[in-house]
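Supplementary Note 3. Input sequence used for the single-chain structure prediction.
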Amino acid sequence: MKNRYLDKVLSFLSVSITTKLDALTLSAVIFQAVRSGANALVLGLYVDKIKQGLAVVQSNQGQLTVFGSPTLFTDETLKEGRGINGLIISAPWYPAAFPSNIFPQKAQKLWDATVNWRTATAYDATLAIIAGLQLTNKRDELQKVLHSPDFSVDGATGKIQFLASGDRINNPIFLVKVQQKPGTDKYEFVPIKP
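The predicted structure, written as discrete structure tokens, is reproduced below.
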């Protein structure tokens, strides 16, 4: 019963974008949302739907505030230009949020490219596993070590510690907004201050 109710509510509140929709259809979806009293749009996308999600943002033309998942935190998003100005995205890491952390500079030097949250969280996962393996080399004991209240390691996203459940303690989440770089035709992610 609960699942059927939830499915019904979600079908009323959301539009599933599973195929390439034309601009006219997207405009109609945005128009209907505005007419229904919506003031925001939330895009929860998988990586294989970035292009469709960006098409929705472009079709919006600033009518609704658009929030996106970390999937949209990409250079591809920024290349869309003016049509995505104002898009707000959540991300588990943003380099400016950790000014004393040297990870972004080291990564830039190593790969000769800017890194994003995917690189930072993968780096942290690797650091945690390495630190755990230094305490035990047995697979079944590694999980216990990582979940221990005494375990911690400093990573790109700050201090890494886990609850007994495996969830990360103080897992940071940041909001960034797409804005035009002053004096240019380029766009960037700018942190939103709490």
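The mean pLDDT is 84. The radius of gyration is 20 Å.
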